[in-house]
C-alpha cells in the first residue's frame, strides 16, 4: 500500500479455519489457525486525518469509518438486487457517487465532484438570484427533464439589483437544471461503462437529495439505458432520498456482528467493550408509603389495640411517584410513534 494512503475499512469476504475455506462467520468455531480474505478500502491520509480532527473538535469521538456506498447498497437494495448486481447512484449535495453492488459486495465505486449544490449555483448564476432563492425554486419548481415541464406555468423570481420581480417558466428552469444533471450522468457513465455494470439485471437505483427532482428518473433511463427507480428510507419521518446516506450508515453500524467489530478493531486499534446484562437480576419493587387521613385517630387506635394485633390503619396507599395522566400517556404514544 502506498505510504500516503491509509486503510479506512476492511470488508471480510471469507474466513479460513484450519484450511477449511468459504466460511462467512467463524464466530463460536474452534480451530488452531484463522485466515481471512477481504477487501481493504483506503483513503488519502491527509483527508482521513482532517475528518478525524473535525469530529474531535466538535466534541465527539470517532469510533470507526463506514464506507457510505456499501452502507447504502445494503440498506435500500433487496437481497436479489445485491446478489445479481445493481448500480446505485447517490446524488448528494457536494458530489455524486456511483457504486456497483454484486454478490453482496462493493465491486466498484466512481465519484464525480459535482452534486446538488452545483445545480443550485447554476440556477443562481443564470437567473442572477441568491443561493437561498435558487435552492428554494429548485425544490419547488425544478424538473430534471424539460419535456415534463410546462412553458405556461410561470413563477416569480427576485433578481439581485432589481426592485421588481421577474417571472420565468418551469421549462426555462428545467433547461438550466438538465444541463448540469446531464453532465453528472455523462461523467459517471464514462466510468461505469468499461466495468460492464450497465448490463446488470438489477438496473439503476437513484438516491440522495437531487434524486427528488421531478423527471430525473426518465432522464437517467434515457442516458444509461437501464431500468431506473428512485429509493428513499421507508421509516416515518425519513421518507426522502436526502436522508438515505445518514440512515444507511447508522443502520449498518448498528447491525454489525461481533466478527465484523473484531475486524474493524484490527484496523482502528479501538478496544471492544461488551455490555452483559444479567437477566436473573430483577429490580426491587417500588416502595409504598402509607398515609393516614387522621394521624390523631391512628395514635388512639394503636393505643387501644392489643399488642399482639396489628393496628387497623385507615387510609389509602399511594405510589411515591405520581401516576401518569391518561392524556399524558396518549401524548407520549403519538410522540413516540411519529418521532
UniProtKB/TrEMBL annotation:
Keywords: Cell cycle, Cell division, Cell membrane, Membrane
Sequence ranges assigned to domain SHS2 in this UniProt record: 1-76
NCBIfam families: ftsA
Name of the protein in its database record: Cell division protein FtsA
InterPro entries linked to this entry: ATPase_NBD, Cell_div_FtsA, FtsA/MreB, FtsA_C, SHS2_FtsA
Keyword Membrane: yes
Biased composition range(s): Acidic residues: 309-319
Region (Disordered) location: 276-325
Species of the source: Periweissella cryptocerci
Coiled-coil residue windows: none
UniProt gene name: ftsA
Amino acid at each position: 500500500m502506498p505510504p500516503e494512503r491509509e486503510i479506512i475499512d476492511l470488508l471480510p469476504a471469507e474466513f479460513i479455519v484450519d484450511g477449511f475455506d468459504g466460511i462467512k462467520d467463524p464466530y463460536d468455531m474452534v480451530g488452531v489457525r484463522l485466515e481471512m480474505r477481504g477487501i481493504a478500502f483506503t483513503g488519502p491520509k491527509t483527508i482521513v486525518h482532517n475528518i478525524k480532527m473535525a469530529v474531535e473538535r466538535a466534541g465527539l469521538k470517532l469510533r470507526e469509518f463506514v464506507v457510505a456506498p456499501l452502507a447504502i447498497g445494503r440498506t435500500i437494495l433487496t437481497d436479489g438486487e445485491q446478489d445479481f448486481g445493481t448500480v446505485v447512484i447517490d446524488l448528494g449535495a457536494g458530489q455524486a457517487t456511483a457504486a456497483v453492488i454484486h454478490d453482496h459486495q462493493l465491486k466498484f465505486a466512481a465519484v464525480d465532484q459535482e452534486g446538488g449544490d452545483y445545480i443550485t449555483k447554476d440556477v443562481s448564476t443564470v437567473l442572477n438570484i441568491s443561493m437561498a432563492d435558487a435552492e428554494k425554486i429548485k425544490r419547488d419548481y425544478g424538473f430534471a427533464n424539460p419535456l415534463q415541464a410546462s412553458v405556461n406555468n410561470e413563477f416569480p423570481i427576485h433578481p439581485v439589483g432589481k426592485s421588481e420581480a421577474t417571472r420565468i417558466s418551469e421549462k426555462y428552469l428545467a433547461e438550466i437544471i438538465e444541463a448540469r444533471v446531464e453532465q453528472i450522468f455523462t461523467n459517471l457513465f464514462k466510468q461505469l461503462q468499461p466495468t460492464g455494470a450497465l448490463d446488470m439485471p438489477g438496473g439503476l437505483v437513484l438516491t440522495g437529495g437531487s434524486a427528488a427532482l421531478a423527471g430525473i428518473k426518465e432522464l437517467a433511463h434515457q442516458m444509461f439505458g437501464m431500468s431506473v427507480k428512485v429509493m428513499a428510507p421507508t421509516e416515518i419521518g425519513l421518507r426522502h432520498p436526502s436522508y438515505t446516506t445518514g440512515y444507511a450508515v447508522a443502520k449498518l453500524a448498528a447491525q454489525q456482528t461481533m466478527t465484523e467489530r473484531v475486524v474493524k478493531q484490527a484496523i482502528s486499534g479501538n478496544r471492544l467493550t461488551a455490555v452483559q446484562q444479567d437477566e436473573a437480576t430483577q429490580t426491587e419493587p417500588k416502595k409504598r408509603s402509607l398515609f393516614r387521613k387522621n394521624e390523631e385517630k391512628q395514635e388512639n387506635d394503636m393505643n387501644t389495640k392489643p399488642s399482639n394485633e396489628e393496628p387497623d390503619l385507615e387510609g389509602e396507599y399511594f405510589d411515591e411517584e405520581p401516576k401518569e395522566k391518561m392524556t399524558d400517556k396518549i401524548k407520549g404514544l403519538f410522540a413516540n410513534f411519529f418521532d
